[in-house]
Design brief:
The protein is mainly alpha-helical. The protein contains three helices and no strands.
């Protein structure tokens, strides 16, 4: 039976969602990890789900650019 306690997002769970999403995990996997319904995941973590891969790709591109331009 589902837990009747409402889900309360916090910095830890936001970070976990962002990390898992940036690693390519889908919403079903992330909601299972957090033990919440997929609708709840989308309700409280829409921004993290939408931006995680964009931010991860931008960080990789930044590091590659830095490595190509700066001579160590």
């Amino acid at each position: 039976m589902p837990d009747p306690t409402p889900h309360e997002p916090n910095e830890k769970t936001r970070g976990e969602v962002k990390l898992l999403s940036s690693f390519g995990h889908n919403q079903a996997e992330i909601s299972t990890y957090l033990d919440i319904d997929e609708k709840t995941l989308r309700k409280y973590y829409r921004r993290e789900l939408d931006t995680a891969s964009i931010e991860a790709n931008a960080q990789v591109a930044k590091r590659l650019f830095h490595k190509a331009v700066v001579q160590d």
